[in-house]
Amino acid sequence: MAAADFKIRPFRRGDRQAAQTLLEEAGYPLSPADCAAVVAWICSHPETEAFLAVDVADHPLGLISLSHRPQMRIGGRIGTVEILYVKPEHRRQGLGKALIEQVLARTQALGCRRVEANVPRAASGGRALLATLGFTLVDEDVMKR
């Protein structure tokens, strides 16, 4: 797929169905009500954004979400890629790279001192892509409840 065959655009409130489909494919199924709430939060929260890769007919091909906030330990803002997902049939065509580059441009404009990405171990293609864009693997010192 050539760059002219897709574009990256900001996520909008009307993208609930696209988000639900892409999140389900990525292994994060949400109920329609939960997805509607998440879309509303992403579109209204000042420290959260998302972008879609879409084809010329505006069909969703991929998704990336970004949170950005001040962080004391680095003395400035940090950007975190919460999810990066490209439909399997559209991988290795530049969409993932374009989505990451969109986020990197946005974090630069926000003055982020650090950008992190949450990438599951099973997502070896995503990890390899991030490595080509200057990301390095850090300790996985995350606990959840």
Describe the protein:
With 145 residues, this protein is α+β, with helices and mostly antiparallel strands. The protein has a single domain, classed as Aminopeptidase. The chain contains four helices and five strands. The protein has helices at residues 16-25, 32-44, 95-110, 124-132; strands spanning 6-10, 48-55, 60-71, 76-86, 112-117. A five-stranded mixed sheet has the order 1-2-3-4-5, sandwiched between helices. α1 (16-25) crosses α2. The N and C termini lie far apart (40 Å). The model has no long low-confidence stretch (mean pLDDT 89).
Briefly characterize the structure.
By secondary structure, the protein is α+β, with helices and mostly antiparallel strands.
Please supply descriptive tags for the structure shown above.
alpha+beta; Aminopeptidase; five-stranded mixed beta sheet; 5 strands; globular
Question: How is this fold's topology laid out?
Answer:
Elements: E1 6-10, H1 16-25, H2 32-44, E2 48-55, E3 60-71, E4 76-86, H3 95-110, E5 112-117, H4 124-132
Parallel strand pairs: 4-5
Antiparallel strand pairs: 1-2, 2-3, 3-4
